[in-house]
Amino acid sequence: MADVSKSDTPLKATFRVRLNGETVTLATVGQAYRFISNLSAVEWMEFRSLHDDALVALERAAGNAMLTVQATSALRMLFVRAKLL
């Protein structure tokens, strides 16, 4: 897929993340991709490997909906380690 951030492919789980006092709902590949790519690299530095894995998994899932399970798992691992869930 040319633009992952516009993907409407649903994730296998909906994530509700609290950030700066607001709840952000992530239900599609595009929403999740925008969320983790819009925060600065410094904010993800501690979780660099998990962040990179999640980005790659989302890029693959945008092109092949069969890969949403892996993308959802990668996001879950990133968010749990970052204590966002």
Architecture blueprint of SSEs:
Blueprint: E1 10-19, E2 22-28, H1 29-38, H2 41-44, H3 48-63, H4 68-81
Antiparallel strand pairs: 1-2
Helix pairs in contact: 1-3, 3-4
Describe this structure in words.
The protein has 85 residues and is an alpha+beta fold. The protein has helices at residues 29-38, 41-44, 48-63, 68-81; strands at residues 10-19, 22-28. α1 (29-38) runs antiparallel to α3 and α3 runs antiparallel to α4. The longest helix has 16 residues, at 48-63. The chain starts with 9 loop residues before the first strand and ends with a helix.
Summarize the structure.
With 85 residues, this protein is an alpha+beta fold. The protein has helices spanning 29-38, 41-44, 48-63, 68-81, and strands spanning 10-19, 22-28.
Question: What are the key terms here?
Answer:
85 residues, alpha+beta, two-stranded antiparallel ribbon
| Overall outline | globular
In spatial order, strands of the major sheet run: 1-2
Q: Helical residue percent?
A: 40-55%
Tally of contiguous helical segments: 4
How far the N terminus sits from the C terminus, by CA atoms, comes to 28 Å
Helical/strand content category = alpha+beta
Largest sheet: 2 strands, antiparallel
Which strand-content bin applies to the residues? 15-25%
Uncertain segments are none
User: Would you report the number of β strands?
Assistant: 2
Topology order in helix (H) and strand (E) letters:
EEHHHH
Give average pLDDT, whole number.
91
C-alpha-based Rg, rounded: 12 Å
